[in-house]
Amino acid sequence: MRWLTEGKTIPVLTIVVVIMIVWYVGAVFMNAPVQRDMNKRAKIEPTTAEFVEQTWNQPKPILPAPHQIAQNFWKATFGVKVTSRRSLVYDAGVTLSSTVLGFALGTVLGVLIAVGIVHLPTLERSFMPWIIASQTIPILAIAPMLIVVLAAIGVKGLIPKALISAYLSFFPVVVGMVKGLRSPDGLLLDLMRTYNAGRAVTFWKLRVPASLPFLFASMKIAIAASLVGAIVGELPTGARAGIGSKLLIGSYYGQTIQIWSALLMASLLATALIVIVGLSERLTLRNMGARP
Amino acid sequence: MNQVYIIGAIVFWLAAWAVNEWLVRLKSANRLVNRTRLVAVPLLFGVAVLVVWEGLVRGFSIQAVLLPPPSAIWARLVSSIPTLWADFRQTFLKAVVAGYVIGNLSGFVFAILADRVDFLRRGLLPVGNLVSALPMIGIAPIMVMWFGFDWQSKAAVVVVMTFFPMLVNAVAGLAATGHMERDLMRTYASDYWQTLTRLRLPAAAPFIFNALKINSTLALIGAIVAEFFGTPIVGMGFRISTEVGRMNIDMVWAEIAVAALAGSLFYGVVALAERAVTFWHPSVRGG
Predict the structure, then answer these.
(1) Nearest-Cα residue of chain A relative to residue B66
(2) Suppose B90 and one of A205, B210, B214, B235 were both cysteines; which one would form an S-S bond, judging by CB atoms 3.0 to 4.6 Å apart?
């Protein structure tokens, strides 16, 4: 019975079940006024049980019931061809491609700048305060402008969104990598010195391996930020595909069920991406001989 | 004529870099000089970026709809202060502040509850960790539908975005005290609330402030992005998206400058409060 009292499974399941119950009850109350109106107009007087069921099956509910979202999600994911405009997989693919491209760009740039900062004191002193300050700035506000301006000079589609993602994922990587490359302490650096190792050798054999755990930790933050960037990048220009455009279209036409299933897809994407980064972290560190 | 601007920008950049190089290497026993150095180097860097921006935009005669020079942005900023102030009041003083306070308070209360009831902690923490990694910004259209176009819906988005970081950090902070300290409180016969207020909350303060700092940025982002989904005709996010549509890019930059300033000030206020509250913490005492 230890797993009952000490594990996480039972408590998490309980929380999920409680959320579901609250959700269904909430759906009844939030959808009730509209349903009452509809019934009055149609001159139907349902019993309480029928009424509850009606509130869970409205076409455009204020709060869709979980099973409605699941149905819509299933239909949009597996019910239509992947290449179709109505397929959620297609939208997820569009968002995913700019997320991954932006993440790759941002990570490479972040690592390069971190290497520069560690080796050039002037760069650190002049650049680092701005990097830290820029974290306090709502960077996403730039997204619409970047997209419109880039469209004006002929850059459209994937690249502008990827640039926003790159911009968002760049900062955590720089901060984490600088910390990581600096993490070897005096003792380790002295050891390299006694081996007569130069700057390059110290960098490749000591600093880089020592920085990898930091890099992966920042990459987890960066990929989540990158996804947010891609989704927000799809909002302002009325992009025709992608999770962000699904959200925007849903909000224009009051298609709440669609919004929720797009959100579900976004959440699954985020989880999957973080899990992938986590797995590659474990693989890399194990191959480097790190003790778990 | 145009080349003059480009060459001037490059020369200024090189000169600024040289001065910075000299400043960084300068060793002085005087503490005041060292302090000034720490501020002067990034400041000079920032000024150099602005000068190069101005020079290149003028030198290559880049159209103002693509990238306006800093001087034009400044002129626009000064001339439209009433509009900017109205937007700031709508987005920041109403939506961000209300959402930030409610979100952090409720996250904190839930953290105390979760800490008290172990079952709740084991259930809530994994869920909270998962949710804080999700793109929560996506609930913006739903909140706009529920709470209408005005600032209440933006505040609701901010509440949802700030709740989970606070929950996760505060729970971690409440677990930060060691057995020795708790045992000491026990030998003093202090009850739960006394231990909480005298020992565990102060020990949790660095974690709580960490969440407050993260949330200060998230709150502003949440409120601005939520305005892309519909607002009354005022607000920073609204202004940005409509002025982009009208190709008034200098106004967009002015609004972004205001947002940046608001974000940094907000963060700075939280950081100052942190220094005042956690004066005993090594990271504060050392600096």
Answers:
(1) A149
(2) B235
